[in-house]
Amino acid sequence: MKVTAIIPDEMISEAMAMSKTKTITETLKVALTAYIRSQKIKQLGSAVLKEPLEFNYSAKQLRKINRE
Q1: Angle subtended at Cα 25 by Cα 32 and Cα 40, rounded to the nearest 5 degrees
Q2: Residue 53 DSSP one-character state
């Protein structure tokens, strides 16, 4: 997808330096990937808070199952 965006030069330069990328396109891909990943982690955290994980087996039971 081709996009036109007005982004401060300093922000792009800093992002390129931090991500060690050579092009603006690569830099934006890295930044968007990191942003999407962080949002998914937040959503997962919220879901776990709403409905905590339940463990139905003890450590001893799990070891026995894994050895079978």
Answers
A1: 10
A2: -
